[in-house]
Amino acid sequence: MNAFISQFGLDWKLFLSQLVNFVIILVFLTFFVYKPVIKMLKQRNAKIKEGLDKAEEAGLRLKEVDAIGKTKIKEAELASIKIIRETEDRAKVLEQKLQKKTEESQIQIQKDLQESYARQQEQAQEQVFKNAVELVKKTIAKTIELKPEEIDESLIKKAVSSVENETK
Known about the structure:
The chain is mainly alpha-helical. It has 3 helices and no strands. The chain has helices at about 1-5, 10-145, 155-165. Helix 2 (about 10-145) crosses helix 3. It is rod-shaped, with a radius of gyration of 65 Å. The chain starts with a helix and ends with a helix. About 0% of the residues are buried.
């Protein structure tokens, strides 16, 4: 076999020393280069996977938050519509109350005006009556001054006109 190996131009001592060198370099590179590089790659892959998982989880949470936000917006819109309707209803009720108060106030003002008008008419009638009484008194007084035989229509008119002139 030695001859067979030497036929190919191989020196077994050299081959053995190179094999030992190769094994030493292989062991050295395995422990000091390959394992740390593999460990670093595994850590990097784990971080990348963790980042992807977190990104996916964040995407899911974002979708949930978006759905919750849309739900809250719809609820807020419904609540605002409800508030607006309630406000409109209150405004209608208030408007009806104000209209009723205004009508009652107008009725009261009309009653007050009618009472005031009636009082003024009574006062005017009293004043006319007083003036008439005074006029009759003065007319009778003037008539008594005249002789009863001479009293006729023209004298009465004359007496009334003189009383009217005196009152003016």
